[in-house]
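Fig. S4 source data, part A: sequence.
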Amino acid sequence: MIRSLIPALVLTCAPPASLLAQEVAAKPFQLDRCEEFVLKSQQCGEYRIMVSLPEGKPPEGGHAITYVLDGDELFPVVTSVLRLQAGTGKLSKHNGITPGIVVGIGYGGESRRDLDYTLPSPAGPPETYRNGKPYPPREGGGAEKFFAFLDTELRPVIEKKYAVNRERQTLMGNGYGGLFALHVLFTHTDAFQSYIASSPSVWWNNRYLLQEEAAFAERVAKSPVKARLVMTAGSLEQSLTRIEAAWPEDEREEHRLKITRRKMVDNTRELAWRLEALRGHGLSSEYRIFEGESHKSVVPMAISHALPFAFPPP
């Protein structure tokens, strides 16, 4: 008898069909107060430009602004973390972050970062596999052309469309993007007031960047600058993670050779130590190594750490 009542009870307790959630057609998700457009460079091709705007009217003098490389991947992260940390007010009561503009520079298709973010330099000995064979060649050395696009084509468009404070501009890059950020600091110091280089690829082309660093240090010692720099890296960028240690032997040892040779952590730390000596000549720099983080996992932490640096109080 009890069993025969169960189906009836289920039917009695079931909500009417009209009260059930109705599925609607899905549509692409978009972040609020964000827009994008395609900008065609005269010499570098097309770029996908993404812009995040803060709430409310701009402050006197305009908003602080950060240009983010690898924008296809990093723009949504930087935008979301900035809004979380800054809140909706004029100045976050928790950590002193001022809301501002984020500009992501992406490709919207096949990436050209190998070309755009690497330095014009003589080709050095190539990296090799364990068997001695060289890595496949990649087209590189386009950093100066890309900087010209950023400085003379993109920035005028951004400054015409939005209220930008030209005295509060930051360049942010990760990996090759961090390499490019350091290149701009060393060779076009006044282009930005602040630079963020997370996991910078100092190793690229046999550490050619260090030649630019030496020339920069010599110049700054004679003629002080006014610039700020923060560098970060993950402690596991130079050693195997738990997952990598379990890879098949050939793949694991090939990867071990690469990260040991590139010395991401050592290069970042040693560069930071040398640049610290320039503090008395107008360069304010800091660095941080995040324990237990790899080249990929450290990215959100590096962004969160850098945002108070990019969007400080006026």
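Fig. S4 source data, part B ends here. The beta strands are 34-41, 45-52, 63-68, 101-106, 164-174, 194-198, 227-234, 283-290.
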